[in-house]
Amino acid sequence: MTEILSPPPVTRADHVISIRNLSKSFGQLEVLKDISLDVDAGEVVCVIGPSGSGKSTLLRCVNLLETPTSGQIFVGTDEVTDPDVEIDLVRRGIGMVFQSFNLFPHLTVLQNLTVTQRKVLKRSKSESVAVARRNLDRVGMSHKEDAYPAQLSGGQQQRVAIARALSKDPTLMLFDEPTSALDPELVGDVLAVMKSLAADGMTMLVVTHEMAFAREVADRVVFMDGGYIVEQGAPGDVIGQPKEERTRSFLHRVLNPLVIETDELDG
Predict the structure, then answer these.
(1) Are the CB atoms for 139 and 85 separated by under 8 Å?
(2) 34 contacts: CB under 8 Å, gap ≥ 6
(3) What tens-digit pLDDT sequence spans the chain (267 residues)?
């Protein structure tokens, strides 16, 4: 009789991010409620949902910018929720891009990209400059290396911020609504850079309100509301044919804003 072997157990090391039963409270306000989520190598996961649903807090918990109330988070084999974790070492493998650009205003574009490399990664000046220039070219900003942030548009500043994050050679990129502070005509250039990163196989967890980007680029879309993951799956399923009424209601308002506004005015 042939012995039937069980498949090997899945371990946290099989995922770039592994979140288990994560909760986060600010005082009496519970912002995240029993969240479990995995992100695999090369996967692009977009998190969508209304304001206040916990999306950004979830992202910030991954690299411990917010300390979880309970639960576990692994980045690769490192448990970032372990009190003894060397979080600065873990963060070296994580690039994060925020809503605001967070560039040093007194430094040039090139200096913004080299300062962390030299101080944190201990790279030489020549190596940090070479890495910086390679990543500025990657985001189409080589021609602005001597400019200061105030001389750049919002979209240009965000592309520099992405290049700065890439200069750490991360295995994981976190994006917290990277286009929300931009004028509509500047959004496209930033999304194009993010699409190219996805095409290159970068693992990405993206909080976004750009539904077209999520539908086109994401391997998986996660819809959050009220601190819970309500629904997740392929973009065509979650955005195109959502199962949950709350997801349908949110997407109806997001994808048809002019119709909603007209209906409310008529009412």
Answers:
(1) no
(2) 21, 22, 23, 71, 228
(3) 444 444 444 445 579 999 999 999 999 999 999 999 999 999 999 999 999 999 999 999 999 999 999 999 999 999 999 999 999 999 999 999 998 889 999 999 999 999 989 998 999 999 999 999 999 999 999 999 999 999 999 999 999 999 999 999 999 999 999 999 888 888 999 999 999 999 999 999 999 999 999 999 999 999 999 999 999 999 999 999 999 999 999 999 988 865 444 444 444
Q: What are phi and psi of 186, to 5 degrees?
A: -100, -10
Residue 187 CB partners (closer than 8 Å, separation 6+): 155, 179, 210
Nearest to residue 238, comparing CAs of 258, 214, 259? Answer: 214
Q: Which two tokens stand for residue 204?
A: 């990405």
Provide the H-helix boundaries in the chain: 55-62, 87-91, 109-119, 125-138, 154-166, 184-199, 211-217, 235-238, 245-255, 257-266
Is 31:59 a contact under the CB 8 Å cutoff? no
Which residue's structure tokens are 């039963």?
21
Residue 259 CA, distance from chain mean position: 30
How far CA 39 is from CA of 126, 146, 177, 196, in Å, comes to 35, 37, 18, 19
The residue type at 38: D
Question: CA-CA distances (angstroms) from residue 197 to 25, 42, 139, 256, 258?
Answer: 33, 10, 10, 29, 32
Instruction: Give the Å distances, CA to CA, from 171 to 18, 53, 233, 258.
Output: 14, 27, 23, 40
Half-sphere exposure of 24 (CA within 13 A, CB side): 29
The three-class DSSP label of residue 221 is: strand
